[in-house]
Amino acid sequence: MTEPRFETVLYERDGAVAILTLNRPEALNALSVQLRAELAAALRMAEDDDEVRAIVLTGAGERSFSVGLDLKELTADPSKLRSATHGQPADSPSKALEDCTCPIICAVNGFAITGGFELALACDVLIASENASFGDTHAKVGAMPGWGLSQRLSRIIGPSRAKEMHFGCQRIDAATANAWGLVSRVVPLADLRRQAVEMAHTFSAHDPKIIAEMKRVVDRGYALPFGDGMELEGAAARDWNSSATPVDVSKTGR
């Protein structure tokens, strides 16, 4: 298969893993209108490819995953701020991330700020390089988050810490993010991509249908009260297990 070509997103395949790289390192991978649309298209392309079972999302360069919306672009045309949250769903990377049924690993290679932070939180697993940092500057620039930051962050690190980040507009480093449960691990920058791809291959080795169903139940259940979440899991278990066939344990290597 010929790998698709975009101007602001690199799309690579490593077996069953699609590797998507935000490719504006000269602008710290700021999310221009073009990059947002191309990232959404690349995510949909990976989702529609039956051979892709996991995705790694990262940024080009050693300084930044993404610093959020392109402020130079917004200064030149303020209407583009509205298009980021009220534009066509087909051009929304946040919506494309939410719609992906396969697992997405975000390899955070530096700054993950504001909109870039939101994209990272929309992924399933976050791995951070030692030089990574996370921050929300919505209050500083005078814009409201529209890709889930106000809801996801507080559910992960608690409302007090989340409000400190929202109101203070200060960054936290990778070690703090790890201590707060924001990322699953912190690794040297030189090892980040390798470890993210290895994790993706581990995920891709399992039945993509059950991985997708587990992802659905976790994501939907996380937004529900505990009792409702247990009912959701119970219903999913009854539906899935009633049609499941016995697994040959010796073949799975369990």
What does this structure look like?
This protein is an alpha/beta fold and 254 residues long. It has two domains: 9-204, 2-enoyl-CoA Hydratase, Chain A, domain 1; 208-243. 50% of the residues lie in helices and 17% in strands. It has helices spanning 33-48, 71-76, 79-86, 93-99, 115-121, 138-141, 149-157, 159-168, 174-179, 189-204, 208-222, 226-243, 249-252; strands spanning 9-14, 17-22, 54-59, 64-66, 104-108, 111-113, 125-129, 133-135, 172-173, 185-187. A six-stranded mixed β-sheet has the order 1-2-3-5-7-10, with helices on both faces. Helix 1 packs parallel to helix 4 (93-99), helix 7 (149-157) packs across helix 8 (159-168) and helix 11 (208-222) runs antiparallel to helix 12. The chain is globular and about 60 Å long. The two termini are 33 Å apart. Residues 248-254 have low confidence and may be disordered. It comes from Thalassobius vesicularis. Pfam families: ECH_1. Keywords: Lyase. GO terms for molecular function: enoyl-CoA hydratase activity. Its EC number is 4.2.1.17.
